[in-house]
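Our example pasted here:


***
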Amino acid sequence: MNIQQGGYKLSILPENKPHTPHYAPRNFFIWGATMSGKSYLASAFPDSFVFSTDDNEKNSGTRPSVQLKNTFDAKGNIVTSAIDTLDKYILALGTESNTFKTVVIDVIEDVCTLLDQAICAEYHVKFIGDVPYGKGWGLFDSMLQELVMNLKALPMNIIYISRENSKMEDGVSVASPALKQKYYNVVNGNCDLVIRTQHLGHNYLRTVTDIRRKYKQSEIDDPQILRILMAIPGALVKDVQTTTTNKDGK
């Protein structure tokens, strides 16, 4: 529908012309064993705000943070849920003037546990599957997806941190993120780069375990993030140098 204003019809459609896509990665998933440098790597990103579930930021972090937890009254009824806190602060980050450039979820599997706990408390059940007609699982899925989409909509870098777990594949123990696979699929489906951190002896290693596309160094517009990614093997590819030739092929 066109809107009449000042004798002209205004259209909601964009102009029919090419635009330059923004290729720089903005959504990151960092996973690794305890004390392997996950939070330390996240703290290197510019101007971060941290949603913390394990008091890491409160005890040793230097960035502004808020603790995620569910609070209950004396009868066990939920008073404030972690999702309420997330909704409130994400709304503020998206609507209020601020100088933050990065939002960190530390750690994402704890957030999932808090969501599960809040739903169980609301319906007075011990297990989310006990909510009738599968409504508990439906609520959980919609809340997690909404959280991921709301974070992605922010004009900021988003970092999800996960601990390390192990699973058996063909009789071999393989390291993997502690976030359950079905939840990982939701989160990772909206991420650009997955990075594993490891602490081996005196060395701290960072490797790319999943990537949306080959990112070029020239596509990274933030010099601080560029320095971080250039130090991680496989995170970036060098720009191809092109040369021009004259008529004689020289």
